[in-house]
Each structure stands twice: as structure tokens, then as C-alpha cells.
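ENTRY TYPE: paired fold submission
RECORD: A
CONTENT: sequence, then C-alpha cells
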Amino acid sequence: MYDVVVIGGGNAALCAAITAREEGASVLLLEAAPKEWRGGNSQHTRNLRCMHNQPQDVLIDAYPEEEYWQDLLKVTGGKTNEHLARLVIRSTETCREWMKKHGVNFQPPLSGALHVARTNAFFMGGGKALVNAYFRSAQNLGVVVKYETKIKELDLKDGKFIAAIGEDGTRYEGKSCVLAAGGFESNREWLREAWGQNESGEWPADNFIIRGTRFNQGNLLKFMLDQGVDAIGDPSQSHCVAVDARAPLYDGGICTRIDCVSLGIVVNNQAKRFYDEGEDFWPKRYAIWGRLVAKQPQQIGYSIIDSKSVGRFMPPVFEGVKANSIRELAEKINLDPDQFEQTVREFNQACVKGEFNHTVLDNCHTENLSPAKTHWAVPLDTPPFYSYALRPGITFTYLGLKVEDDAAVRFNNIPSPNLYVAGEMMAGNVLGQGYTAGVGMSIGTTFGRIAGKNAARSALSQSALIQGAM
């Protein structure tokens, strides 16, 4: 029997396993994926949003707690637990030293259109390098890792963890357990159930692309919900971004994201705009566009730019459709040419001339146009023109287990004495809706370490009681 059983193999699970081992506990980590696909969605991440009151190595200027909190409050629309959110925010000021200790290296962040040089610390080599570093550190510390081990259920008694049970019936007993097995974003049937049908009789989830791992089926999450665990979050809410419609069904990751939305216009398949493309900086708004596209007919949109925008955004992996006129572009992407020309003409006429600057919230906006474009509104008048077809890309879901700052799983508001949760399985406590770049890793790192520490202490206190009784 191990002191701590950790279920999952991503950032939160690894932080929990390493921390529990540092506390002196024996640790078994169970990863559903094979070794080559280990790491869950964390392998596709790039950075961590960090609070800091002054410049810190790769972070410039300052990003104080209150500004971080206001950014989070804005994107969630108030659907967040302020106490837990601030706990996460404060932990990001100091966690990078711990991360470095376990092999994670940081690089100066990208500048320009991403606007994250001040707020986010980038991993050298991306999420894959982070995952590999953590696995090396965990195994060097003596954490036992088992791959291709899918857990179908837990043996629980009055809210207490007894054992994890694999699909093949194998029991993995432990004195405590950390659940960090991700959400249900790869489970198409559950997504269909969560999103339902729209007014046209379509099932929007059928057109979703899964940006990350195919292994997050939500089996353990569903089991816990069926056990009557305290839950939080709307099953239809998720980190949902607009990705290239040509992206693979799974594991396309960051390179399939389309980052030129704020520099042009976005239309649906009726060639009509449907939202303010320039509402705010892209890292604060990119995660709303998947949901916006999901609500459009046939769950598709088209990001349209002209040649003035080329070089001002992260180029996607696939080239856009190119044309020398708006009408030719419409014909190439199968939109009604007359309506498309009208949409572009009305947008161009509504643009108020200002000082364009894609690195600040500039004064280029539209007037007497609905929906408005608040910033970076410049006429689409310089060929060639480009189009990128968009689909909703699900990263992770927000339905999860309700927690307090001890990361303990709760039943009727009573904390389990030895069962804890971290990562996507509880992110909905902080993210009721919306997203801002890097905060998912902030939540996973913070609560992974809390869960690991408390799981270890629970297990070791049980051992001490047993030894004292002998």
C-alpha cells in the first residue's frame, strides 16, 4: 500500500505527486495515457500567469495582486470564488522557484501582439518540456509511475478513500488520494448532453475540435458526481477558443489557434459579423471566441484580414485562403458574395480614423455599427485579403468538484479526511466562465501542491497513529 495515490498525469497531478514525496510520503501516480502521450493537456501549455510586485527575471515591470484579480474578475463575469482565486494569485508570486528546482526552465516571453511580457512566464520548450521535467524529478524522488492505467471507480467508505479500481479490476490501495484526472472535454457524448441542441436542431458539440488530449473522458469525474460529491460549475462552460477549422480532432494544441481575430473582422456562414473583435487585448478575449463560434449556424466562422495585418500576429500552422478582392474571397470560402461585400463595406464606412497601434488599446473604433468594434478598427481595403475558417476548440471543461483552500473533496460540505482534488477537476471554483492566458496552469500548480501536501500529511498521520497503537 502506498501513502498517496495520485490519479492523473498532467501538471496538477505531477505537482501533487512531487510535493507529497517531498513531504516524505510514498507515492504512486496512475496515468491513463501511454508514456508517449503522457501529460494530459499540460503538454500543450506554454506559460504561467504570475503575480509580481516588481520585475522578476523573465517578467518585466509589475503585475500586482489586485490587477491580476481584476483581470480574472472581468473574464469570469464574477463567476469565481474570490478567496480561492486570490489564493491562486498569491501563490504564483513564489511558485516558480519550486518549479525551477524540479527542472522547469523559463524564457523571456513573446512580445508584440500577445501582450504577455509583463504577466506571463513562458516555459522553455513549452508544456512538453515542463511535463518531461516533472516526470524526471518525480521518478528521481522515488514516485512510482504506471502508464496506460485507466481508473473506472474508487472504493469509498463514508467519504474516505480506500482504493482506486482500474478498468481491469486491479485495486490500488492508498492511505490518501489526489484526483487530478482532467475534465470531460474528450467525451463527445457528454459534450452533446451538456450543450444540447440549438434552435436549428443541430448538436453544436458534433462540430467541436478537442485541442488537447483524447484521454480526458471524464470517467472519474462522472463517478464522483454519481457518488453525490459537492460539485460546482456549468457543464457547458469551458476553455473554448476559436481554432483553425482544418485542425486535427485531438492534440492540435496551440499551433491551431487563430490569433488575427482582433486585427480584422469575423463573420459567420451568412457573411455577417456577430461580436466585437476589438473588445480587449487578445490574451484576455481569445477564450471567448470558441463559444461565440459554437453559437453560430453550423458552428463555423471566418476571420478576415487584409495585408496590413500580416506580420502583426502569431502565424498559424496552416496558411489562410488568399484573394485579391473581397468578392473573390467570398467565392473561395463559399459565402454569399453580395452579403459579404455589404458587410465589409459597412464596416469600412463605420471605421473612425485614429492612431492604430495593436500593442495598446488604441482609438481606432467604429461608430453607428452593430456590433461595434471597440479597438483596432481599420478598413479592410488593402489586398490581398485572407480568410481563416474557425471552429470551436475545447481545451478543458469547468464542471468539477467543489473545494475550499485545503483542496479536500467534500460531501454535503464535509471534507473527506484523505481524498483531495486538483487541476481541471476543480478549476471551476475559480473559472466559472471565461479565461485569461496562463491561469489554468496557475490553478493546477497551486492546488496540485496543496493537494499533495495535505494528502501526504493525512497519510503520514495515519501511519503515526497506527505505529503509536502498536
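RECORD: B
CONTENT: sequence, then C-alpha cells
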Amino acid sequence: MKIGIDKIGFATSNLYVDMAKLARARNEEPGKYLVGLGQSKMAVIPTTQDVVTLACNAAEKILTPEDKAEIGLVIFGTESGIDNSKSAAVYAADLLGLSEKIRAFEIKQACYGATAGIAMARGYLTLNPTKKVLVFGADIARYGLKTSGESTQGGGAVAVLLSVDPSILAFDPKTTYLARDIMDFWRPLDRKEALVEGKYSSQAYLDFFTEVYTDYVKQTGLTSADFDALIFHLPYTKMGLKALRLVTEKATPEVAESLTEEFEASRLYNRNVGNLYTGSLYLSLLSLLQNSTKLQSGSRIGLFSYGSGAQGEFFSGVLQDGFTALANDQTVATMLAQRQEVSVAEYEQIYQAGLNVKNGMQLPIEDDPAPYVLTGIQDHQLQYLKR
């Protein structure tokens, strides 16, 4: 039985800030952000968007009425939760018009949440092969203005539809994983902005990748030459390149060149959006499929997922015949190209407004063209609108 990804959708805001201009405003050389981090643009999320609306905007692009009727499980991976009790999955399922005869819940483990959801989906589909599973990875990355982590902010959502006999990617059966209690990144309950030990977190990422990748190739007998691409969770795109070099430095020149070329295709969208936390790996997959010129049906892709705190996993999948339709779709590239640039001052104003959405507020939805928006908070209840 083949189980894997049948469809992928992506959404972010219609606003961005230019990273070179942000660097200059912070008295930094632009190369520190453009090359040192590998980031060109950063999504700026307005007050009218949260993880629920971002997720619904991503899902609406891919789901047909037939898909919605076949979904039996909705899993929402996020570390930007909107309620300490009620799951974002329930809000999203209702807004999307899904059946009430489903399971819907939220899952959290830093940037690993969507991968955890996909692992659960694989088990569910084994027992329910006629159903489909909708997994979200949606987040708004916040470290604070003029902080060391500011340049690795961003936001958006991926919606991943999983099924038996998928059209895009069929997962290989083996996965390897590692969990370890470390304090490299965390967000206390009384904070809307994350805390991070940057150098420690980067080294932990590389250590986790080394361990799970080494374990994977040992257990499967595969080598770097068996992968047509390796993709990564990308808090900033240079991080994935550092991990890739741990593989390519031991590979043949031909394999190293090919994997590096495919990595460049995989990071194109991420470098123009910023950090998606839970959605980052799957935006990288989407970027790879739509920007690579070499992949074909039967190509094997290795995926590394990492969530601080920490959890890591390495797994792989084989491209199916239907992936070419997604590869030829220019919707995401067009959407990113049509976004509106905001100045650094405007970005700072929008950022501060996002931290101060309070009960009783009505939000300026007329400025937001997205189909799903947050209109405000009344009686401590979030108010959503589908246009």
C-alpha cells in the first residue's frame, strides 16, 4: 500500500519587507542577511491573519468538494496557538466546511508539529485506506524587533493532503528519529515572542541531522547517491545548506553537485518568505518540485525535519507520476511575485499591532485581500470571516 502526499497548498500574506533594506535599518551589511542567512524577503503578517486563516487560505487552493467529503482526520501543527484549550484544527475544519464526522486536533513540538501530524496520518490511512487526512503546518515566527532573531522571522501555512495511492510523493516505510530535552529555543506561556540560543540551536540542528541521517542510511543501506534531492527544515536557508554540506563533503563530486543544485531549487520560496516554523520543510518540498529542472517520476527525496526542544526525524519518499501537474503550476511563484512591499517603518508598525490585538477590537479587513480573515475578538471569542 502506497501512502503519501496527494496535494500541497501554501499561503502567506500579501506583504513583505526587503531584507537588504532591513539590514541597513539595523546598521548591518546586507550580505549578512542575503548571504549569511540566505534570505531575500520576509513575509509581514497583518493583524487580520493568524494561523487559522493562513491555514484555510492554503487549503482552499487545493481542496475540491470531493476531497472535503473524504477527509476523516484534520491535524494542525503549530507553535503559534490561538487558544490554550480549543484547537486551531476545529476552527479550520468548520471554516472549510468539512464534515463534523471527523477527528480534529492540534499538535505541538516546535517546528516538528506538521511532521508529527504526517506520521499520525500514515497510521490512520493504513487503517482507513478510503479516507484522506489534512495536515496543516502554520505559524507566525516572532522574535521581536531589533533582536538577534528578527532577521529569521516570517509566516505562512502549508496544507498537506495525504492519501493512499498519492499523486505526488509516496513515503518509503522507514523513518529514523531522535528526541532530546534541550533548551535551544522556547516560548514561555506569558510571551508572544520566542527566546532562542542561536548558536546552540544551530549546532543542535546539525547534530540531530547527522544522527538521524546516519541512522537512516545504516538501517536502509541507501547512500547519498540514492537520493535525487535532500531537503530540510529551513529556519533560514543557509541552515539547510550547512546540513547538506555534511553529506556532500563525503559524496562524489557528481553527487555533491547534483544535490547542491536541487537544494538551491528547494530554498527559493523559503528565502522569499522567511521562517514558517512547522510549514518550513513542506514549503521547501513545494519549492523543489516547482523549481527543479531534473526531477522525474521515481526520483527519491530525503526530508529532514527538526523542532527545537528538540525532535528530529529523517524520512524519504518517491515521486509519483502526478507530481508533474504540481511542478508545472505557477500559482505560488505568481503569488509571491505580486506581493506588496512595505517599508521597514511600516513593517515595524504592523508587527507591533499584531502583538496588541485585544478583546473588543474590530480589525481592518478591507486592507487584506485574502479569502479568509480574522475580523476581531468579541467576548474573548475569535471572529473569522470567509469571503
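NOTES ON RECORD B: The chain has two domains: 3-168+330-386, 169-324. The chain has a mean pLDDT of 97.
STATUS: closed
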